[in-house]
Design brief:
- The protein contains no helices and six strands.
- The chain has 96 residues and is mainly beta.
- It has a domain at 11-76.
- The strands form two sheets. It has a four-stranded antiparallel β-sheet with strand order 3-4-5-6, with no helix packed on it. The chain has a two-stranded antiparallel sheet with strand order 1-2.
- The protein is globular, with a radius of gyration of 14 Å.
- The termini are far apart.
Length: 96
Amino acid sequence: MSDKADYLQDIYTFDLNSHKWEIVYKSGSGPEPKARSYFSMVEIKDSILIFGGTDGVDTLNDMWIYNIQTHEWKCIETKDTPEVYVHLYSLEEGIQ
């Protein structure tokens, strides 16, 4: 697949009171996921989990977690990862 799009690694927050968007910068120089589209994402407590997608050339089957408080990414090692190209349904269940 090649859609010749420019993929960004930007993260924005939206303030529900001021109705303004603000870019969030990651902390440190640690690892981060490749820029991508068509990924699955779910918020869990103070983190955002992303899985899969495409970088416009390859299908990505990696999983990353972003800590909203520390602004740091961490790669999550998985086993028997399904090959998925487009969005998945994500559901947070039983997490308090």
